[in-house]
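Hey everyone, long-time lurker, first post.

I ran two proteins through the pipeline my lab uses and got sequence/structure pairs for each. Pasting them in order. The first:
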Amino acid sequence: MPNESGDLKLLANFRKLIDLVSADNDYKPSNTVLKPSALETQHGSGLAAANGVPANFATNMVAISDRETGFAEVNPTVSRIHGLAKASGAAPEKIADLNTFRRKLIPQRKAKGKAAAVGGEASTAAPETQKQHSSSQRSYDNQVGHLRGYLGVLGTIEDYKPNEADLKLPALQSWVDDLQAKNDAVSSTFVPLSQARARRDSLLYTDQNSIVNTALLVKEYVKGSQGTKSPLYQQIKGLEFKRRGK
């Protein structure tokens, strides 16, 4: 797949190609697509499309970093809430209900030195399906869902009345809403990034009239009109214009 450094190299070579053919008095293509003015326009569009990718990438990366920072507080915050819930004197069945969601939010540590004996052989590795299930439960979307379930149970505990402002139920609801917003921001900022990449790829590599195809046609025109030994062809033949994936 094309990358930003490869894009800039391609555009730099296209810039050199335009400058070289524009300065040659014998460069007179009948195909309007190959005329210097059309090449200039194509270069400008391609450069704008290429520059749009890192700009949108930066926005997406900021959203990803914000999400990681926000969700890093899930485990310690849930541990604090759970401690206060138990200390409130909540009924055991309520704590059991909270534990159902807590187990999905906080990975359980493996007991050291223990192994399950299967057929006389010890096995310390968890089955792959179990690992995949655990990973799925810990996805950002699922964490938000489990937190809402946890807070739903917490709201039924009448004696849960902490003095800590950040652990009061309304504050916790706002906290989860903020986590949801951070998670949504990653998706919403990825859309323009994906669109920018698609436009970049189309204009530079994949369209019929892409920069790569146009540059190769310019070379063919110069080779046909002036010959391979002409000064202009000798100047442009070494400029690389590779199609996507090559």
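...and the second, right after it:
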Amino acid sequence: MQLCFLGTGAAEGMPGLFCQCDCCKRAREQKGRELRRRACALVDDALLIDFPPDIYAASQYGEALTQVEHVLITHQHREHFYTGDLCNLREPYSLGRPPLHLYGSAEVLQRLRSSLGDALSYIGDRLVLHELSVGQQVDVGGYAVTPLEARHCEGALLFLIQKEGKALLYGLDSGFFPESTWDALRGIQINLAVLDCCNVTEHETKTHMNIEDNITVAHRLFAQRSTGEQTTFVASHFSHMAGLTHLEIEERLRLHGIKAAYDGMTVTL
């Protein structure tokens, strides 16, 4: 299994569209890994996680998104679920491809219906909706996907994705995991754990995590034997508000065996 990070930024991206802080100025000057699109990831060029406003730009990484048939949505916030671009599934904008299957909580599907309204009828059977429930494993294009409870907004989900003996935990967006999620992960051998690090060094961590939280989560996963020497830890979803460059974030995380994600980064399980 392979995971490609199509975007690793928070809601404002990096640099912020209207921001003139020192961090965003440096990003515009240095470019490269300092530039971050809104968070999104692609598993094996086959399974997309989230559908942000930057999806067109992000599609330069990996294979063309025309091949993707399954999309998992973590939660209904606009930076993770930009419903407007789904209108391009209708004819004549989308030709020669199978239907797109979209999976999310009841809150996600409600937002889709309310935001698109009558436009859904024009998309027709090119978009197939699947409602997910916490803890109920489903087959998604050959992947065993288990939605887990996140600490973020109503209906927000984390995803445990398993295939051919490999397990990926996608942990964006969430504060410190709820106990139900810890319980669900017991007995699971995780090969790749992707953790929310939106706050980086800030300490308002109710619905997001920072570096200290990532370290605590990594230790607890190890203590309950959900991870081991074979596990790769990656932090993502960084906000510009910490004022740190990618290199500075990377150095702080490396001390604790955690990698800092960047747009276009690929990890093989």
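Reply from user beta_strand_b:
Welcome! Quick read of the second one: The longest strand covers residues 143-149. The mean pLDDT is 94.
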